[in-house]
Design brief:
The chain is mainly β. It has an eight-stranded antiparallel beta barrel with strand order 1-6-7-10-11-13-14-17. Strands 2, 3, 4, 12, 15 and 16 form a six-stranded antiparallel β-sheet that branches. A hairpin with a 4-residue loop joins β6 and β7. The protein has two helices and 17 strands. The chain is elongated. The longest helix is centred in the first third of the chain and has 20 residues.
Length: 241
């Protein structure tokens, strides 16, 4: 009889422990960790649009990788469906010349803002410690602190035949919405603490628009379209409440 009672108590304790791990309707989960951006980029040649249309043959650009702190918050509608918001401390990207622009080296840099929202489906039961998931969502991307290097500004001035010391070039990157495809897995250590790893793919493109001035007067405009299409791994420590 004593063994039977002990077995029953152990079974109840095990069931209680499993349910405590469950992700269920109304649960919130927050996370923080490493967010990495790896652009799979390509670009169109730099093209002058004024005062006359002209293409810089063989010119191109590549965006470098970037790392930052990622923050996320997830709300569970039930044990399988959830919605997640993700944002990172705006990472700084450097742009490098390729082709005929390769001798210039670094062309410029910018910070990227890309808050993301995802609808996610978790596999396995809510009580499982390991739960793979898939997600689909969207992000709105805009850029700040866009700066061009003196080397690029000097190359543009020389091409236009204007004094480098009297000229200046500024740039703007277009904002856009982009779809996000996500896959990952979450592991729960105890009723509150866990970890999550995911990989997202973002279909992202932008156009860099440059304006060159001489003695403060606009004398030329140019632009280049960039396909960034970054792959974004995210490794986070999570807390459920």
């Amino acid at each position: 009889m004593m063994k039977t009672r002990l077995f029953a108590l152990a079974a109840v304790a095990a069931l209680g422990s499993g349910s405590a791990l469950a992700q269920k309707a109304g649960d919130w989960q927050v996370g923080a960790g490493w967010l990495h951006f790896s652009p799979q980029d390509s670009s169109k040649p730099l093209t002058f649009t004024s005062p006359v249309a002209a293409v810089v043959p063989g010119s191109g650009a590549d965006a470098g990788n970037s790392d930052t702190l990622g923050l996320s918050a997830t709300y569970f509608f039930d044990s399988h469906w959830a919605v997640e918001g993700v944002i990172g401390v705006p990472p700084k990207f450097k742009l490098y010349g390729t082709g005929t622009l390769a001798p210039i080296g670094e062309l410029g840099e910018a910070r990227q803002w890309s808050p993301t929202i995802l609808a996610k489906y978790y596999f396995n039961d809510g009580e499982a410690r390991l739960r793979p998931y898939v997600g689909l969502g969207a992000t709105y991307v805009w850029y700040s602190d866009v700066q061009l290097t003196p080397s690029l500004q000097g190359a543009l001035a020389n091409r236009l035949g204007i004094p480098v010391a009297a000229s200046s070039t500024t740039a703007k990157l277009d904002s856009s919405f982009a779809p996000v495809f996500n896959v990952g897995a979450a592991y729960q250590f105890d009723p509150h603490w866990g970890m999550s790893f995911s990989v997202s793919y973002i279909r992202l493109s932008t156009t860099a628009k440059l304006t060159t001035t001489a003695v403060g007067v606009p004398v030329a405009k140019s632009e280049s379209s960039l396909k960034l299409n970054p792959i974004v791994p995210y490794l986070a420590v999570t807390y459920k409440f």
